[in-house]
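anyone seen this seq b4? input:
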Amino acid sequence: MTDTARIPDKPALEGLESKWGGVWETEGTYRFEREGATREGIYSIDTPPPTASGSLHIGHVFSYTHTDVMARFQRMRGKHVFYPMGWDDNGLPTERRVQNYYGVRCDPTLPYEPDFTPPFEGGEGKSVKAADQKPISRRNFIELCERLTVEDEQQFEALWRQLGLSVDWTQTYRTIADEALFTSQLAFVRNVERGEAYQALAPTLWDVTFRTAVAQAELEDREQPGHYHRVAFAKPDGGHVEIETSRPELIPACVALVAHPDDERYQPLFGTTVTTPVFGVEVPVVAHHLAQKDKGTGIAMICTFGDVTDVVWWRELDLPNRAIIGFDGRIIAEAPDAITTEAGREAYAKLAGKTAFSAKQAVVELLRESGDLLADPKAITHPVKFFEKGDRPLEIVSTRQWYVVNGARDEALKDRLLERGRQIGWHPDFMRVRYENWVGGLSGDWLISRQRFFGVPIPVWYPIDAQGDPVFDEPIVATREMLPVDPSSTAAPGYDESQRGQAGGFVGEHDVMDTWATSSLTPQLAGGWERDPELFDLVFPYSLRPQGQDIIRTWLFSTALRAELEHGVAPWSNAAVSGFIVDPDRKKMSKSKGNVVTPAGLLDQHGADAVRYWAASSRLGTDAAFDPQNPTQVKIGRRLAIKVLNAAKFILGFEGAADAAVTVPVDRSMLAGLATVVDQATRALESYDHARALEVSETFFWTFCDDYLELVKERAYGEASAEQASAVAALKTALSVLLRLFAPVIPYAAEEAWSWSNPGSVHVADWPAVDELAARGEAGVELLELASLALTGIRRAKTDAKASQKTPVASAVIAAPAAATALLASAEGDLRAVGRIADLGFEEAEVLQVRDVVLEVPREEASA
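predicted toks r here
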């Protein structure tokens, strides 16, 4: 029954977030109820854990709303929805933010200060140069990381709650918490036990700013200015070979020249040697299919290591390693052994200690002096590899790192991963190709170790031999019982702390895991793998993985990999991939471009329902433009939410019951049309097309308000009768259905309006079904459509006459095909009432039109 006392005089959106947010939390509206749940009755979501560093942006609101619409839909369909929230709070972004925020940097050699106070408390600290940041111990640094991430997470949660995410906030996790450490380390230990994780000394992509290794999935190409330098390599016969290079500073690291095996220009040189300019090192000329005949002069130098192709050539051609760039990005002091001439060593000494940029300038001058620079450098723009969060180009250095197999060198594993991709329902389907292309293009196993401080420790130690050297080939792996463990503060199994760093003792692994090595386990983290077997069996494999398209290669692939290695299954049934938010110029929003919009102001100004409407209007996989100066779709969403409240207040003001008989044909026609909308919206949501579901529901709603409601309101206001009861029942039935259709998108307005006439929450009410409308809507949808057209014709006639819509009509004729006039005759009473028509006639015509409209002349005009 309608509680008129609960209906405000002037319904408004303001205040609904705080009002209903508190109610939902108190009543546990979105709580996952495990008791009585079966695997078939659960809809589980592997929710993306946002990086707890800085602030959320409008793109988060965009994609997380898509997920929430689906969660709400499935909950209303009777599913037990497992909808957790995680916080990704370990990784380089957190470390960088802590450095800037507190004005500190980590120095693991320093002792712990129990009462440490950072030099900047609550400030960004960006005015402090890196060299001026205060060095602190690793433990002090981690404590600051944990403090700041907790603060950020509280702000994030408040924003998510304001947005109305129907998350179960009792199911939260942090990627640096003990449960996450346990899960991540246990998965790693099992990878080692099965031979899927291993350590190797190999060329590694290296970020010289962060001093850490970088995985293939974390790379991005950025167009950078540079120069091609045409350089001469001496042939034994006194001639020379010309090459073009953008990195002349790597000539001392050159180990060969390479050309395509089919290139006739260089076939006579294969198997011979040439001598490097300035440094005088004899190197072979080799053939390889990756050499490009149409690039530069068609022959290139192989350096250890200038780029990833150099690594492939070095490995496949079994070439020596003459690496000259150190972990700090500078030329190392010691010249390669291959440089044996005095002139070569003197030249190298001029480079030692320089940055790659300065070394390039020095080598160019040396080449000019020797006459081996054959032309002035030619300006170019070319793609250069960067760490996606880095500011300087990557270098390639040789380091000892931990890897996990990923199919790059195992065709059987690659085939299984491709098959798992085919078992997942992709929304939109074309995103599957991006996954398949990534798997097919893998060039090396997954590098998971990072030289950082705030992360999950790799649970490994190494024995130290009698000479005091670590024996890296005999790692000591933690047992399950020890987990979670930090090898830097816990002794290795079978040793005590006094043996740390001593000959015959042990040394702990200092590296931590790549953040994706933890995030790849979000299904296991949230589902309680190996901690809560009952819960894990209920939710895994998950129903849905929602995420952005830019992390298919990282998060999606790595999660699929870990699930295959550990469980032999695809981790989810469906993957829903959102598009990007772009600015009005169609440029992707990013902090580096300075065009990011934060959502707090939008939510405060327009309301959560309005912002959610904007997000839900875009289909999965489709980029959406957003102009913060003119958020048109947000304003449309706010108008819709307000209209829902006002329409509900208006309809609930009529006397009558929703379950009364619906007997009047136009009422039954409206319900038949609504049944079609329910069917279309349901099918769309089942196909993960929330935008289509919203579109059909909204289109019907505005027709319902503008036409049907206007058409029948006089009858609904009238004296008690079967016709009056039919109108009120149809209106209230439609309102109930429409509120439930809109509930996933505009949850606050829907809940407010629902509460005026229903017990409980609309968000746990049954999703509307065609069956509840079909029996009452047998008149077909055509009648309401025809009546709407006739009503439009009557309104237009008054508008053309520059008369008020309240002006009485002495007479009018509706002309239409015979079948249409027969239908319209059943709505004659409503048409006469709404048009204030005294005499309404019907005639046959080819198309529907309203004509011969005669307005009653007001008395004052007649007397004049």
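DSSP finds 26 helices and 30 strands in the chain. The longest strand covers residues 219-234. kinda curious what u guys think
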